[in-house]
Structures are given as structure tokens and as C-alpha cells.
Design a protein that fits this description.
Elements lengths: L8 H4 L42 E2 L3 E3 L3 E8 L2 E12 L5 E6 L8 E9 L4 E13 L6 E14 L6 E8 L5 E2 L24 E6 L3 E5 L7 E3 L7 E9 L14 E8 L4 E6 L2
Antiparallel strand pairs: 1-6, 2-4, 3-4, 4-12, 4-13, 5-6, 5-11, 6-7, 7-8, 8-9, 8-14, 10-12, 14-15, 15-16
This protein binds zinc ion.
Zinc ion binds next to strand 8.
Length: 271
């Protein structure tokens, strides 16, 4: 999330047609908070033979990369860019990080998967939330949520590969569902000064989590690359496959960019 800026207007211009989605639609999800109450139509009280309700999974997808900028981090020249992660799935991304006490630095993440009957089931994951203080964040980040890397056009060797953690939250609406994780109600565990024992984060169906080009970590170092030249830049959401979702086919977005000493231009989306 970008706490410091409103959602870019340009994001809202991204049409849903740009979004590659191979979702298997399982019907519209409940727009209310998941509750433990089973739907009367889905279960018969007192019968053990009823089928367990099916998962209504999220589907994280990377939108086209945009707003490329050349910049410096210390003495290193870097390439900065926006990444936007949308939830294309029929169900929400919903995670809860927990720890027993503050002696443990990391919160272990459970994914809360919505079921067709409106209830949820918890799934243990290898993900962690960690309190981040850099660049004014002062809240918990879902570690390794995205990976960025690049290679010269036609080359096979990736450079500058690194992962970034973020606070998952609803920044922009591209789907019309009521927000479940609005910044007004979800603060990523901010203002608790690393004292939180439980932090919930998520991304509503049809909503976008925005990572602006100027944010800390939102760049790739250009060290060792021959400039001017054409380069393939790639961003992947959930590269460690920490969360359960409909498909990983749409988790990567890439762009071919032309970098000179003074500017960077997009040659085309996809490379
Ligand atoms: Zn943050």
C-alpha cells in the first residue's frame, strides 16, 4: 500500500480488459464479513454426510508495469516503476498474522479462505508479517509479497532480483465489490509500535493494492548493465507461492523498456 498518496488516477484508467484472468468462477461471493454461520441452503443440521463447502479462492494478478523512472539510490543508478496487484478471484485475499508475545519478532501467517457457505477455513502458511520502520511505513509487511528483476533483451541472465514485503490493503477499486480491507478500518498494525500480537490484512475481490514507483524498495539496480539498451523488466506477485489462489498463470507482468543515460521508455508490455 501507499499510505502517503491517493490512488493514482491513471490506475483507474486501466481497463479490466487488460487483466488476464483464467478464473474458474464459482458464483458471486458474499459481500459481508465471513461468518461462522452456515447457510441454511448449504447444510442440513445434524447430518454428517453433507459435502464440505467449496473454497471461494482469491486470484492475485499483476497488472501491466508502468511509470518507469531513472533515479539514484546513494551512488547507484536504479530503475523505478509502479506495480499494481489486483485480486481477480471470486474470493478475498485474507490473512491473519499472529504471535504469542512480542519476544517473537515475526507474526506467523494463516490464510483465511472463504467457503461457499460464507464460513472460512484457516490454512497455515510459511508467510510471515514483520514490522517495518523504513521510509515512514511503521507497520507490518507481508514479507516476500513481490519479486522484481530484469535482463537485457534476448539475454537469459536475470539481474537485480530481490523481493519486497508490503502491507496488503484495498487501494483502488476496479471491480465494484464493497471494500473489506479499507485503509479506514485496516491499518496494517500501524500505531502499535511493534506491539501487535495479531494483524489482519487483505485484498477484496476486484480491488488493487498499489505500489508507487517512489516507494522504498520499488526499484532494480542497474549496476553491471550496458546502457543504452533494451531490457525486460519483470514483477511477480507471491513468488514463493505462500498463498492459495485460483491460478498462478497471471502472477507475472513484464515490460520491455529502452534505457538511455537520460531516460527510460516503454517499448511494449510483455517480454
Ligand atoms: Zn508499508
Amino acid at each position: 500500500m501507499s499510505l502517503s498518496s491517493p490512488v493514482r488516477r491513471s490506475l483507474l484508467a486501466v481497463t479490466v480488459a487488460l487483466i488476464t484472468c483464467s478464473c474458474t468462477t464459482q458464483g458471486p461471493p458474499s459481500t459481508t464479513e465471513p461468518s461462522a454461520e452456515p447457510s441454511p441452503s448449504e447444510s442440513v443440521p445434524g447430518t454428517a454426510a453433507s459435502e464440505p463447502a467449496a473454497d471461494v479462492l482469491p486470484d492475485m494478478a499483476m497488472l501491466p508495469l508502468e511509470t518507469f523512472r531513472l533515479a539514484y539510490e546513494g551512488d547507484e543508478r536504479v530503475l523505478r516503476f509502479d506495480t499494481d496487484v489486483i485480486n481477480n478471484g471470486p474470493g478475498p485475499v485474507d490473512v491473519t498474522g499472529e504471535r504469542k508475545n512480542t519476544m517473537t519478532p515475526d507474526l506467523k501467517v494463516k490464510q483465511n479462505i472463504l467457503l461457499e457457505d460464507g464460513s472460512t477455513r484457516e490454512v497455515d502458511t510459511d508467510a510471515i508479517l514483520r514490522y517495518e520502520t523504513f521510509d515512514g511505513h511503521e507497520h507490518f509487511h507481508f514479507q516476500d509479497f513481490e519479486r522484481y528483476r530484469m535482463r537485457p533483451e534476448g539475454g537469459s541472465e536475470w539481474t537485480g532480483s530481490h523481493k519486497e514485503g508490503w502491507c496488503l490493503i484495498d487501494d483502488g477499486n476496479l471491480g465494484g465489490k464493497p471494500s473489506r480491507y479499507n485503509p479506514d478500518n485496516f491499518d496494517c498494525g500501524a500505531y502499535e509500535e511493534d506491539e501487535a500480537l495479531e494483524v489482519r490484512q487483505g485484498l477484496t475481490e476486484g480491488w488493487v493494492d498499489v505500489y508507487d514507483w517512489y516507494l522504498e524498495g520499488q526499484y532494480i539496480e542497474l549496476k553491471g548493465l550496458e546502457i543504452p539498451g533494451n531490457f525486460c523488466v519483470e514483477a511477480e506477485v507471491d513468488p514463493e507461492k505462500l498463498l492459495t489462489e485460483v491460478t498462478r498463470d497471471n502472477n507475472i507482468a513484464s515490460a520491455l523498456v529502452r534505457i538511455t543515460d537520460t531516460e527510460v521508455t516503454i517499448v511494449r508490455q510483455g517480454c
